[in-house]
Design brief:
Layout: E1 15-22, H1 29-38, H2 45-48, E2 53-60, E3 63-70, H3 83-86, E4 91-97, H4 101-105, H5 107-118, E5 123-128, H6 141-151, E6 154-157, H7 166-189, H8 195-201, E7 205-206, H9 210-215
Parallel strand pairs: 1-3, 1-4, 4-5, 5-6
Antiparallel strand pairs: 1-7, 2-3
The structure holds guanosine-5'-diphosphate and magnesium ion (MG).
Guanosine-5'-diphosphate binds near residues 25, 28, 128 and 132.
Length: about 230
């Protein structure tokens, strides 16, 4: 069943997009989210920080998009990621490490899991750790490209450590959504549906202006630091 539904939005209200980042443990998911959202890279993420999601605002096509980047707290190693993690996602990053063949061999099953829960949402396959020297690159870029082609999703190479290619991954997903948003705006301009009705239909989270947002923190109160 395709659970992807069209996005709609209201003028001047920032749009929040939920993006899930999946892949085997150790491929660099937390590092990638941290890098994009805060600009920081450290070898120690895995043991010290796990958050439900981090948020990063970007402006695209004159619209403010708030990307909510969902991380796991290591559950991927135990195959215990819950459906709540995937629910309502509007974009997905599937990461493998070029130094870890096993992480590449599970790409199909990650795609399958996300598609099962979210339908046909925009996805990017990411070949991470391309900074590693040749002998440690056990998965070649061409293999990743072919896999992405087979799965009919986009492909990007990154080095989170060197901050190469990371922004492009998230911008790619934002752009795919923006195209849907703009066409939804055009449709809603002529729509007879009430504003309330749209709110019920949309998957997209609409945030009130900054002042209201600060008063009503409930949406983001789930952010927490884990051991
Ligand atoms: N050399 C290299 N190491 C990386 C890169 N990205 C992440 N790492 C390291 O890989 C390890 C696992 O990263 P982490 O983000 O915890 O992986 P996760 O389990 O997928 O969240 C950490 O030691 C990171 O510092 C990268 O682009 N290059
Ligand atoms: Mg992690």
């Amino acid at each position: 069943m395709n659970k992807w539904r069209d996005v709609t939005f209201y003028n001047d209200e920032p749009i929040a997009l939920k993006i899930v980042v999946v892949g085997n443990g150790g491929v660099g998911k937390s590092s990638m989210i941290q890098r994009f959202a805060t600009g920081i890279f450290t070898q120690e993420y895995k043991k010290t920080i796990g958050v439900d999601f981090l948020e990063k605002s970007i402006t695209m096509g004159g619209l403010e998009l708030r990307l909510m980047l969902w991380d796991t707290a290591g559950q991927e190693e135990f195959h215990s990621i819950t459906r709540a993690y995937y629910r309502g996602a509007q974009g997905c990053v599937i990461v493998y490490s070029c130094s870890d063949k096993e992480s590449f061999s599970t790409v199909d099953s990650w795609k399958h899991r996300v598609t099962n829960e979210c339908g046909d949402i925009p996805m990017v396959l990411v070949h991470n750790k391309m900074d590693l020297d040749e002998p440690r690159q056990l998965v070649k870029k061409a293999q990743g490209e072919q896999k992405a082609k087979d799965l009919k999703i986009a492909f990007h190479c990154t080095s989170v450590m060197r901050d190469q290619g990371v922004n492009e991954v998230f911008k790619r997903l934002a752009k795919c959504n923006l195209e849907r948003i703009l066409s939804a705006r055009n449709a809603s301009a002529t729509s007879v549906h009430s504003r309330h009705h749209h709110r019920e239909l949309a998957d997209t989270v609409f945030l009130a202006d900054e002042k209201k947002f600060k008063k009503r923190k409930s949406l983001f109160s789930k952010c927490r630091i884990l051991d």
